[in-house]
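Write out this protein's structure.
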Amino acid sequence: MIVDYHVHTFMCGHAAGTLDELVEAAIARGLDEVGIADHMPLYYFEDPDLAMAPDELPLYVERVLDLQERYRDRITVRLGIEADYEPATQEMRVEILGRYQWDYVIGSVHILGDWVFDDPRRLERYQGLDVDQFYLDYLGAVGDMAETGLYNTVGHADLAKKFDVRAKIDLEPHYRELLGKVKDADMCYEVNTAGLRWPVKEMYPAPDFVRIACEMGVPVTLGSDAHSPADVARDFDAAIALISEAGYQSIAAFEGGAMRLVPLPEYQPPDH
């Protein structure tokens, strides 16, 4: 079975294409399941270019459930959400996520302190940055996120590298510490191909992370982080090769918040 569980919609303010176009792209790419997982309202501030507004969340859920029904004979559509982790607003996030029956919740860290570090409009903060400490702060926040028990999947687990800013320290012990928390929380992480489309030119997470995760028995799933129909399942042949080379024989799939493992697929992408 082949899945893409990280697909965004126009509702986040920085994605293109209709919901039907996204699902049709998934069908054209030969997917068995497509998970719509748009950015949940941020709550630490409102920015229409980064995520939907709080009053739009019910409409988002309604639209995805409508897709499920209309496409049920052609593809399985999963109701997902990408929910940030930010300690000061976490109680609100817990309460609002509890209102809906998600197939899965992707947990992502996009903000440290008051800095949305993956926003191309805020690159000036990288000037003079202690990069090693930045990585430690980021991985520590991802670990704290896992310990909340709120999320099913770690999204783009080494997003700190997005703009090709690299730590000089050995990250392996920090990967292991994080992955221990992910495993204890019965979570998986995604191999996310979007990094290939950003300056880092590498999938999230790094091959060493994937290798260590497989060694530790932490499940993995697939996500394109698509922000347009053209990006649905993009570079999944490379993602599956990475997962296979690390030693995995299965990927995680979701339904109603429950994770199951399905055999690692072979995938030959159709022409885009």
